C-alpha cells in the first residue's frame, strides 16, 4: 500500500459523493429524518419508546446505509470498467479498499455527528456516557457496514444483486442484535448465533454508552472494529477487476 495513492482514492470518492447530491442527502439527512420520525411516533407514549429504541437505531442506521451505498458504489466502479483502469495503474487492492473505507469513514463521522447531535440536543435523548462516545460507536458501525459492503460487492453482477445481500446478511443481524428481544432472552441456538454477529456488539456498545458509562464498551467496540478489518481483508481477497 502507498499512502499517497490511498489518499488519492479517498479524495476521489469524496469528490464523487459531493457531486452525487441524492446519495449525499441519503447519507447525511436520512438518518436524522428517521430519528425525528421515531421521536414523533413515541413522544406521547410512556414507557418503552424513543429512549429505548434510539440507541440501537443509532447503531443500526449508519451500518445499513453504508452497507447499501458502499456495495452498490463499488459494483458500479467494476461494471463501468473504472476499477479495471484504476488497478492497471500502480495501485493495489489495499489502496482501493482502504481509500474507500477512509472516505466513507469521514462521511460516517459527519453522519453520526448530525444524527447523535439531533437525538441528544433536540430530541431529548438522555445518555449517561459522553456524546462523543456515541458518535465514535456510530462511526465504527458505519465503517463495518462499508467493509461488509465492499466484501459482498465482489459476489454481485448487478446493482439489484448487490441490494439482495441486504436480507441475507443484514436482516438476520437486525433480528438477533437485541432490538426486539434482549439477547439474553433469545433461545440458546439463536443466542449463540447472535454472539457471532458483529451488529450484536455494535448495539451492545451503543446501549452501554447511552445507559451507563460502562468501560466494557471498549471490548464491544474492539470486536466491531475487528469485524470491520476482517471485512476489508476479505474484500481485498475477493475483489475483482470487472464483472464476469
Task: Describe the structure in your own words.
The mean pLDDT is 82. Helix 4 runs antiparallel to helix 6. The radius of gyration is 18 Å and the shape is globular. The chain contains 11 helices and no strands. It starts with a helix and ends in a 6-residue tail after the last helix. The chain is 77% helix and 0% strand. It has one domain. It has 244 residues and is mostly helical.
Shape: globular
Low-confidence stretches: none
Q: What's the order of the H and E elements?
A: HHHHHHHHHHH
Q: Give the proportion of residues in helices.
A: over 70%
Major β-sheet annotation? none
Note the gap between the termini: 26 Å
Report strand %. Answer: under 5%
- How many beta-strand segments? 0
Q: How many separate structural domains? A: 1
Total count of helical runs of at least 4 residues: 11
Q: Using the CA coordinates, give the radius of gyration.
A: 18 Å
Membrane topology: Multi-pass membrane protein
Transmembrane segments: 25-42, 48-75, 96-123, 129-155, 162-182, 216-239
GO molecular function: ABC-type transporter activity
Protein name: Transport permease protein
